[in-house]
Amino acid sequence: MDPIAFARDLIDIDSTTGREGEAGRFIAGCLHGLGFSVTEQPVDGDRANVIATAGPASKPVVMLSTHFDCVPPFFPSRIEGDRLYGRGACDAKGILAAQVAAAERLRLQGETRVGLLFVVGEERGSDGAKLANEAAAGARFLVNGEPTESRLGAATRGILRVKLHAEGRAAHSSFPELGISAIDKLIDAQSAETDVDKRKKIVWEIEKKLAEDVARPVIGYNVDNTCWDPKVKGLNLQVNSIYNGWRFEDVWLDK
Fold this sequence. Notes:
Blueprint: H1 3-11, H2 21-34, E1 37-44, E2 47-53, E3 62-67, E4 78-80, E5 83-85, H3 93-108, E6 114-119, H4 127-134, E7 141-144, H5 182-190, H6 196-212, E8 232-233, E9 252-253
Parallel strand pairs: 3-6, 3-7
Antiparallel strand pairs: 1-2, 2-6, 4-5, 8-9
């Protein structure tokens, strides 16, 4: 297969999250044509994950995976010099094309232990990935394609969720002094240690313990409301990026 031509054909299909149906059918059809055993796993409406193996009896040990939905706005592909442009060229249709090319090359060499998993909905809610878990066939490793400047990142074996609980007392806004703010309590607890070196040491001790237990956590939180003007010391927000590998060891709430 020609991965550049494949990538361009896929990029030229608008698969903004929620509209992945046509792109999924295109991927499935191409994989069928290459000789893979393909399953289209329905997610919602005409949206479906695409799962492929070297043959109906194949049991993959390694799954190459990424998503084929994109953020808006859609714009088609073009080539300038040695670079491919278009919505999803980097995140993640170009990656998807490279994974198909790699799996096809291995399959033609007789290697049947590599499978493909392409999901919908990654950019908003990950409904495709959640459903794909139900169809997991026991592969030992998953290589997830995302733009990482071609650097391999170690992934998680599980997830650690932390919930903070604070109790307050409600009061009318005209008499705030009669109430107790639970939010203020959480901020006070978060900001109790103002010494940056000590904060880093606390994070490092936690990380050391997790490493000893062979755990690589992803620390996240649920967002019910968005704060457009965060008062956070030492934090430089960037678009579509994760600050400091989720560690936040050198920032703390200010207000």
